Each structure stands twice: as C-alpha cells, then as structure tokens.
Write the structure tokens for this entry.
Amino acid sequence: MGVVLSLGDGKRAPASIARLVDLTKADMARVNELILSKAGSDVEMIPEVANHLISSGGKRLRPMVTLAAAQMFGYAGEKHVKLAASVEFMHTATLLHDDVVDESGMRRGKRTARMIWGNQASVLVGDFLLGQAFRMMVEVGSLDALDTLSAAATIIAEGEVMQLGVAKNLETTEDDYLQVIKAKTAALFSAAAEVGPIIADAAKADRAALRSYGTNLGLAFQLIDDALDYGGNTQSLGKNVGDDFREGKVTLPVILSYRRGTAEERDFWKRAIEQNESGDAELERALGLMNRYGAIGDTIGRARHFGEIARDALAPLKGSPQKSALLEVIDFCIERAN
Amino acid sequence: MGVVLSLGDGKRAPASIARLVDLTKADMARVNELILSKAGSDVEMIPEVANHLISSGGKRLRPMVTLAAAQMFGYAGEKHVKLAASVEFMHTATLLHDDVVDESGMRRGKRTARMIWGNQASVLVGDFLLGQAFRMMVEVGSLDALDTLSAAATIIAEGEVMQLGVAKNLETTEDDYLQVIKAKTAALFSAAAEVGPIIADAAKADRAALRSYGTNLGLAFQLIDDALDYGGNTQSLGKNVGDDFREGKVTLPVILSYRRGTAEERDFWKRAIEQNESGDAELERALGLMNRYGAIGDTIGRARHFGEIARDALAPLKGSPQKSALLEVIDFCIERAN
C-alpha cells in the first residue's frame, strides 16, 4: 500500500515510545513482576494460558500510560503500579475473549490461546484475569479509580457486543463505527490515563484532560490498527494483511470504500464481507478499491484528527518529561502506518 | 432413582424457602428492579440476552441469602440491595460463560442463550454483567465487600478451569472434586452470605460464621445438584436426567461408582465418560451401577454432612427469623433430592 505520511515539519525524527519506556522503566519492572505473580495460580493451566499471551511481546502501552499519567502529577506512592497491572490484565482478558469471539487463529505472530488450549480455557482464564484485575484495584483502595476502571469494563463489553451487530453489516456508518471503537478500544485507554491523576489527587480539570487524551489516543490507535490490517507489513504486525477482510470485519477502510464505490463495487463488497467470498483474488481487488478511493489514507487522516484532539487535551498542562512522552505516543501511534 | 431421605424426626413438614422469600420480599422487589435496570443498555442485544436468563425463573437464592444475612445483623441501609443484585449478576455471568464452556443446549427448561444468540453474545454479555456487578459494588463503597466479592470472582474462574482438568478424568478423587466445587459454586455462596455482616459492621466472628455457612451451603447445594442430575425428575429440573453423563462430566456419583466398581465396570465408565459412549443404554447401565453402589444416596449423605457444618456455623448466633430462614434453606437444598 505504501501510504507515507508527511511528518509536518519534515525534519523531525520518527516518533517512538522510547521516552515513555525510559520514564516508566523502573515502575514497569515492578508492574511486570506483579503481572507474573498475579497470573499465578495453583491451577496449572491458568499461568500457562495467561503467560502465553502476557509474554507474547505486547508493547504494554496502556500500563505505561497509567504510570506516566501518575508521575506527571507528582504521584510518589505505589498505587500506580497495581493500577497499571490491573489495566494490562483487563486488556489481556479482553484479548482472550476477543479471540474466542472472532475465532482468531493468530495474535502477535503466535497461535492464539484458543488454538492451543481451546475456547473454554480462553474464556475462563479471561474471567480469572478480570477477577485479579479487580482484586488489585480493590487493594489500591481508591473508589474513584475503581469507579473509572469498572465503568470501562462494562463499556468495553458493550462495545464488543455492538461490534457483533456491526460485523458483516456494510450499512454501518462511520458514526456507528466510531461509537464501537470508542467503547471497545478507547474506553480502556481513557481509564488507563485518568487513573493517574486520580490517585495523584490532581484537580478535576487534570483528570478531564487525561481522560480526553486517553479517549482520543485510543481512537487514533484503533483506526491506525484498522489501516495497518490492509497495509501493514506481515512481519512487524504479527498478523497477515487482510485478516479483517477474511473475517468479514467492517472497519473504516471498508466503510469508506463501500460508501464511495459504484453499485457494482458495492455488490463486490457485499459478496466479500457478507457472504465470505474473501479469497486472495478478492483481497487484491479490495486493496485496489481502497487505493482508488483513498480509503487507507483517509482512515489515517481520521486517526490524525483524533491525535490532534489528544494533543490539545494535554495542551494546558505545564511541561514535563511525562507530558512530552505522552505527546510523542500520539505521533508514534499514527506513524506506525508508515 | 427414588432415593428417599429420612427426615430425622419423621414429623417435620418439608423444608421450603418460603420463610426466606417472605423475609426478603420487600428488599427483593428492589433487587429485581435494579437487576432489570442494570441489565439495560442502548446496545439492544444486551438486555435481550441478559433478560432471557434473568427471567428464566431461577430461585435467586444467592441474593436472598445476602439480604437475610444483612437483616440478621440489624442492617438498616440500602447497600444490601445493590450487593444482592451484584451477587446475582456474578451468578448470571458465570452461567452464561458456563453454557459456552460446557456447550450446553438447555438451562432451566429453556434453550440456552448461546443456542439463540451464539457463543459470542454469551461471552460478551457475561462480561458486561460482570462489569455491571463490579460497578454496583463500587457504588456501595465498602472496600471489604469489594474485596470479598472480587476474590470470589477470581476463585470461581479458578474452579471452572480446574473443572476443565477434571472433565472426563475418572481418576479424579473425591478430594479433587470437592476442591473444584468449593471454588466454582461454594465461593459465591460464601461471599453472598459474608457481605451481609460486612455492610452491617458486624463482629469478625459473625462474618466468619456467615462465610462458613455460605461455603458449606454451597457445597451441599452442588452435591445435591449432581445427585439430581441422575435422579431428579425432568419437569421440575428443567433438564434431562443424565445431562452430566452425556456431557462426560465427572461428578461425585460417577466418582463413587467408578471407585467402588469392578475392573469391568471401570472399563464401562471409561468408555462412557472418556470416549463418549453415553447413549440411553449406557445411561441405564450407569444408573444401575449407581444404585448398586449407593452412589446417589451417598452423594446426598455427603451433602448432608456439609449441611450440618453450615448449621453449626450459625449455631452461636442468637435466634432471629433470618437465622431460622437460613437454616431452613439448608434443609430445602438437601430435600430437593427427594
């Protein structure tokens, strides 16, 4: 696909999460320790299944956001470590359940847990991790943080159910789709960012700023993921180009191509998405149509729009290494599509 | 099977939950309202799936136990209503996930949600209800109650995973099996009972008493359920005799029959449970063997043992209508096997 983003100023080095990684390194070591210990159980299969996914090389972006957001407001205690681990467990539980719901075979370049241990284990170990996430939050003892994260858990599930309705439905509008990803992806980013100022006892406006940052970062992140599924490169993605297409997922690149296409092209999309005529030849045609209508480029453009909102959300906050790192995460997310 | 229990004194009327229902009637009306409202969502499919199970005529024993346990210690607020609804949601979420894990077709005489809306919806609506359960607990604001219920959520999931290991494994000992049902069934009864004294700010010994009552009531309840699966009557159960057998579940009646049987009989059990040779003829033979070895009667005997422990757990507490009602629940659970 070869979509290339202009970097705006044309001079800047590629954005990376190196700064965020650096700032949160010491805390993340404790988070990772906690993750390993809380994924443990006398029931052998639980750590096996959990660690398969936990050790599969996710970036752990969400817990790092929690840590940086707490540091940013001068938080000096230990609660952010537990909350960050909770956030990652919520995410892991969602992935385990997602793979069952989507009948996925691969994730992060590895066979999914459901392919190795079955759907049953994936559902139940997901439940276990969600339970452990709540226990850690309870240990932290902040009812505000509990409220924020438990609301996110509900919203994520709502988003996933909405997605079932959207699946294979080409009449899904861009608005419908945004509502889905706001719930299923952005809600956790939002909560992950907001619990930082919450435990740091920051002002209401600071909480709102981080919440907005998280929401919009999450939207951008998901849209770029959707674009990458049609344009990324197999190695770095750990999944094949066109996975969403083969699964009949209606994501923004498909929505834009469908709405901008001719009647004949819309028929093609219907056969592909609704009737599973989605082999290699069809994928090639789909990529051609996306290219013709600029659907990937515009998906990235939409992502950039939400990235701007995330950036402005943090604008009033005073400068700090954490603020710079969180801003760079936005660019990193969007530049992944290069 | 026609197992008839001696009622001990030979004069007592059959135990019922009428007294418990009566004592908790006003509170339960509010619990039921809350359940309906918190199962609501703008995402249409969620209340549809949730209400299918919620309205399917479960006894709501667990939330009634929570309410009575709170009343018993003079609790006069409103928190017990939310906690009772949380407990029922945790239970409902577990059932939705269980039916997916067990690939069950029927529950309470109705087709399971997964047969109507699919496994995907069952997994995700279960997640939603679990999220809502936590949100209600957070609203209550008692960290002690949150701790107790979130620990239960983890333990239940552990129990379900343990059960995967036990499934189709005839070398499961009675001890192994008790460990499974202690986690998957008794943990929620235990938490449901304990949160009553917790929000009533009762003494530590009272919390321990109710916790022990709940654990042992739960064990008795599950063992009777297991016995009923081989001896109950189809109408009142809402499921067919031998469902566990056909699903290859290793429950106590099977464990006892297997261990007490001859080598030839053990081969029969292996073919039936491990290799799915479990048609009508095999079920008939299984029932015959259970009868020969008294496996159903002894399963009920084991249940009675735990019932006694539950009874003694409440013994030191001063008399009250709630105490009487909770004691009668024990007898009701066990007498279901008549």
In short: Chain B touches chain A at residues 41-46, 97, 100-101, 119-121, 123-125, 127-128, 130-132, 134-135, 137-139, 141, 143, 146-147, 150-151, 153-158, 160-162, 164-165 (CB under 8 Å). The first strand of chain B starts at residue 106 and ends at 107.
